[in-house]
Design goal:
By secondary structure, the protein is an alpha+beta fold. The chain is built from 9 helices and 29 strands. Helix 2 packs across helix 4, helix 4 runs antiparallel to helix 5 and helix 4 crosses helix 6. Bound molecules: zinc ion.
């Protein structure tokens, strides 16, 4: 795939063409391309001939003239132009951000995660459709630099006071990850001696933030070390890793993670866990870069399964802490984030209608995974599962079921009811118990059918695994005066006497 974004003048107008190369899988003569109003497709050509396009809202149906034979690799050129939607509250309500930096220079960026990439460029706008590589060519006024995904192939000075940067992405990329960032950038770099060799890490920041960034972006190398340990090799060595300053908070744009956390620790200076641990790292550097493994490497086919992106990535925040500050610190953090959980809707949304699950996909997702880590009773095995997910589903799009099945198989535990409970139900399992006459009676309530998760409790000072079900179970104890406590690492409620 090839994009030319030809000019970015002051009137917030863009024009360009997307050369789409495709392999014919079925012999259809019509191709759907998405582009959202007010952007318009001006012309589509194939082999120099103009093709007929029928427009239906944001979907455009192109009739192909030449016979489409299965296995053929063909290309067509989609020309487009317009004033793309301006971001209202990037990156959530995205589009183009046309900002100015402190020196009054252009500071422009795109973000389109929920809207879809077709808000600014024509493509097949669905999660299951990732191109295998892409050349992104952007022309902008001289004195400004564009930074997109992948590696800079060349920078060409044009006669008309513009420059064209050509960025090449050597890996499959989700369309919302494609981005354009234009500003008065300066660059600095370092090498990470990683699991797949030397990885160049490049940082693009506004000229006047250079010194600040050199100090603050030390979190990036720390992140890369910690996440390669937990998740395996960074998935895009061929494309390098970049952090790019933008005029909004940030986004997981593949191999060019965007950054706008104001050079503060935490989330704009706040600790999402309220434990103090959240101020040990820059939330945007850690979280958005965590998405390189969960979102960019392993991508949901349907946005209903977006918990795969956000649950694992929210979980990655505590693994970062685990790597540098130990297991108790990481537990404090992830448990602290439970205060953000609403339990309003299930984590999985409705399939096939562009519907996401609850925003609990972040911290309930993280706490579900933290609970799962306890069930495995083997941190090394858990780490190998996290790494195995990234190697098994390397550069793939997936469904929740594939993730569930993989973890069940690798752990040797049938997690069907566990996932049904935490992903498809809003109730928190409650351990109900009574402790009388040296007998502990216990059972699960508020659970899905068949839910039988073992749980670690303390009877007095002694730890003990118990195996509750929906029916009462009993256990003899040395004394009814001994206090029963449930291990805090399990995301459950308890109710006892
Ligand atoms: Zn995220």
């Amino acid at each position: 795939m090839l994009i030319d974004l030809l000019e970015i003048p002051d009137d917030k107008f863009i024009s360009g063409k997307n050369t789409i190369q495709y392999k014919v899988l079925k012999p259809h003569q019509v191709m759907q391309i998405d582009l959202q109003s007010p952007m318009e497709i001006t012309k589509v050509t194939q082999s120099g001939k103009e093709l007929e396009v029928k427009h239906n809202g944001n979907a455009h149906f192109i009739t192909l003239k030449s016979n489409q034979n299965v296995g053929d690799i063909n290309a067509l050129e989609v020309h487009y132009k317009g004033k793309p939607r301006e971001a209202i509250r990037a990156p959530w309500d995205g589009g183009f951000s046309w900002e100015k930096d402190q020196n009054g220079k252009h500071f422009i960026a795109t973000s389109c995660q929920s809207l879809g990439a077709s808000v600014w460029w024509p493509n097949k706008d669905h999660g299951y459709d990732e191109v295998d590589s892409m050349l992104i060519s952007v022309t902008n006024p001289k004195g400004l630099m564009n930074v997109s995904n992948g590696r800079l192939r060349k920078l060409v000075k044009n006669d008309n006071n513009t420059v064209t940067s050509h960025w090449f992405v050597n890996n499959p990329i989700n369309s919302y990850g494609v981005n354009v960032n234009i500003g008065d950038y300066v660059n600095f770099s370092e090498i990470h001696e990683g699991e797949k060799g030397d990885l160049d890490m490049d940082y693009w920041v506004l000229s006047y933030n250079l010194e600040k960034a050199k100090e603050h972006f030390k979190d990036a190398l720390k992140m890369m070390k910690a996440f390669e340990h937990w998740f395996g090799p960074y998935p895009f060595y061929e494309d390098s890793f970049k952090l790019v300053e933008v005029p909004y908070l940030g986004m997981e744009h593949q191999s060019s993670v965007t950054y706008g956390n104001q050079y503060k620790k935490g989330y704009l200076g706040n600790d999402l866990s309220r434990t103090g641990w959240g101020l040990k790292f820059d939330f945007i550097i850690i979280h958005e870069a965590g998405h390189e493994w969960f979102a960019n490497n392993i991508t949901n086919k349907d946005v209903a399964d977006m918990w795969i992106h956000e649950g694992f990535t929210a979980y990655s925040e505590n693994l970062f802490l685990n790597y540098y500050y130990g297991k108790e610190a990481s537990a404090d953090y992830v448990i602290g984030t439970r205060a953000n959980i609403q339990n309003d809707k299930p984590l999985i949304g409705t399939y096939n209608v562009n519907n996401r699950g609850s925003s609990d996909m972040y911290y309930k997702g993280a706490n579900m995974l933290h609970t799962l880590r306890q069930l495995l009773k083997d941190d090394e095995k858990w780490r190998q599962i996290l790494r195995g997910l990234n190697s098994t589903f390397y550069h793939k799009t997936v469904t929740t079921m594939e993730i569930e099945n993989y973890i069940s198989e690798q752990s040797g535990i049938d997690l069907t009811e566990f996932f049904n409970q935490y992903l498809r139900d809003i109730r928190i399992p409650t351990l109900e118990y009574s402790h009388q006459k040296r007998t502990l009676k216990y059972r699960w309530i508020d659970v899905v059918d068949g839910f039988d998760m073992p749980i670690l409790i303390k009877i007095g000072a002694d730890e003990q695994w118990i195996f509750p079900k929906a029916e009462w179970q009993t256990l003899k104890t040395p004394s009814s005066k001994m206090l029963i406590t449930v291990d805090r690492n399990f995301y459950v409620n308890s109710k006892g006497n």
